[in-house]
Amino acid sequence: MAKLPEIINNTLIKSGLNSWNNIDAIAVTTGPGLVGGLITGIMVAKGIASGLSIPCIPVNHLVGHALTPRLIKNISFPYLLLLVSGGHCIIAVVYSALKYHILGQTLDDAAGEAFDKVAKMLGLNYPGGPSVEKAALTGDTKSYNLPEPFANTDHCNFSFSGLKTAVNRIIIKNTNNINKKFISDICASFQSTVAKIIVGRLKNAIFLTKKIPIQSLVVSGGVAANKYIRDEIQNLAYKYNLELHIPPLSLCTDNGAMIAWAGIEMIYSDINYHEKNINNIIELYKNYDFAPRSRWPLDLIF
To answer: What is the phi/psi pair of residue 191, to 5°?
Structure first.
C-alpha cells in the first residue's frame, strides 16, 4: 500500500496524461486470486475513482490476458484463445469482451505451475519457466519418454500432474547422476512434452470450432513467453491457416496495461453489443459495489 502512490504517479507521468483530470475511468483487477492482495488494489482504485467522480470497473484477471493481443492489433472476434500461465490453462472461444465459451481447462496443475515445480525439483531458479527453457536449449528432447495425458482423446482439457510426477521419479532414480547434461536433457524432454500436450488440445479445439468463423489463434499468459512452445504453436497455426497472435514478452506476464485495456474493451463492447443500454457497464458499478473474488471463471463476466 505504501508503494502504490509513487507507482501510480510515475505511471501517470510516463503515460503522458500528466493530470488526474485526463482520466475517464479506473479499471482494477478484482479476481481471481488471493483476496489479501486484491483488496489493496481495489481500495486504492475505488478511492481514486470516488475522488474524481469517475467509474471504477472491476476486471477479471483472465479477461485481461484474453484481450491483451487486441491492445497491440485489432484482432477480429471471434477468435480461439489459449491462456496458459502459472495458475491457469484454458482454451476458449472469445466472441467479444463480454462473451466467452470455455472449451477446456486444466483439471489439476497449470502448465506454468508444472514448470515451476520441475525447476524446483532440479534446484533451478524461480520462476521456473525461464530457467527450464534456458536449461533445455542444450538438451535432447528425446532423452526421456514422458507421458502425455489425454493424448488420444477429443476433448480440450489439460492435466499436468502425471507429467510432473513422472519427471520427479526420473530425478529420484538419477539422484547420484544429476549433472548439467542430465538437467538439460530432462528439461528439454519435459518442455517438449508440454508443447505436445498443448498442441494436441489446440488441434481438438480447432476441430470442435470448425463451424465458427474463426480466423485467429491468440496465445496469452506467462507461458506464452516460452519460445519453444511458441514455435510449436506457430507450426500448428500455419497448418490450419490461422493467424497467430502472441503479445510481446512484456505483456505476456501479469501487467497493469492489460487490465486498463480490458476496462476500455468492456466499456466499448457495451456500446457495440447492447445499444439499447449503452451505459450498462458504468451504471452497473456506479456505486463501486463490488468485492474481490478468489474464484472467477473466465466465462462469468459479472
So the answer is: -60, -40
